[in-house]
Amino acid sequence: MSSRKPPTYQSPPKQIRKKAPPPRKAPKRSSSIRWMWMLFGLTGVAMLSATAGALLAVSLSATPLMQRQLTAEEAEVFTEEESISTKMNLRLPELTRPVNILILGTKVLTSDLDTAPQQDLGYHALVNSFDGLSDTMMLVRFDPSRQALALLSIPRDTRAYIENVGTSKINAANSYGGPALAARATSELLGGVGVDRYVRINVQGVEKLIDALGGVTLYVPQDMKYQDDSQHLYINLKAGKQHLNGKEALQFLRFRYDNYGDIGRVQRQQTFIRALKEQALNPTTIARLPKILSVIQENLDTNLTVEELVALVGFASRTERSNVEMLMVPGRFSAADEYEASYWIPDPSRIDTMMAQHFGLGYSEVAATPPAYLRVAIQDSTGDYDAPQSVIDVLGNAGFGDVYVDTPRQEPLQVTRIVAQQGDVESAEAVRQVLGLGEVRVESTGELRSDVTVQLGQDWIRRYGN
To answer: Residue 50 to residues 62, 87, 148: CA-CA distances in angstroms?
Structure first.
């Protein structure tokens, strides 16, 4: 476990302005994508032609989606000592070891720039840039040794140390120093975990990506309505199950005007990512990858090579649903009078446990929480008044001493979900065995204070109802 610096508090700037970097000379992106099409065609004949094989090797090692060159010092932040994937003769590239990818979602407005736009549109318009605050931060671990995919959401208001800046909200790191500084801050927050590569995508790219993947079907848990004329942000979604296109999905992902604020948005992002992974990410996605990248290339910045990108997409598409883990940095909301700004206060001890269990950092042998001390929340989706109490009775008889009823879940479920809110799979499985039904999920979509949240479905009524 790395030592944690006790920096002097510095209030984060109310608004971070960063001048857009000058354009650098680089190959046209359309040309890069065209030879990516050639790459996939050459895969099948690489063994038949030494010339084609050499061309394939050069193409696979290129980084056509990197929008600006990292300095030598910045590049050292990302692990380079060994390749994260390998070519398998006639097969596509595959992962050879666990890798951690930092994903940064950015939103930059004209008001965030030092220089005024040439045309005044009368509102704060979106700019195709990556240099502002990171609206979304995730560290994703692709682990072939466990055949698992672990996604750790980092709330944008997380109070963290940023090198040469001090203590601030972690989303400011990208604005101060780009992906390298964001990676350093992430590593410092998470006990020294390594970051192998980065991906930055702005909100325009997210909308295009979702459309390119065909949209996603999910349950909108509440009416979502918000209007901000200053930046032409209009959110208007009705509650219920529906298919969202890119524009609508962006409204779902950006909405944060409820009791949990940004933490509620993190929960909805996890719901969305799981749905998108299950509906749109499959082995055929690899064949469509060049076309997808051609659509979003101007809105994407990454130091991944083509080989690595193909390997990661292939691995994610083959990962079983039960091995997709959706986590969130453990912590709490700051008190109103605790700091000058509002923060998500990280819990170092619980972070260490989570990193050991899901990111292979430190000791993974963690003592199980005794049932008497396990916090179990019940979220009912059945509408049966007696159902939550019947669950409390069953768990209480099995020695679970801290079981309570939370706000009902609006989405009607057929199968009960047993959510490992803090990533404690063993405790969630223990609850499932006592109940005798349900699906264990590692995600942070349950009650925030709980260790395990039981989201009650109709299967409970069918088995135990009157």
So the answer is: 19, 15, 36
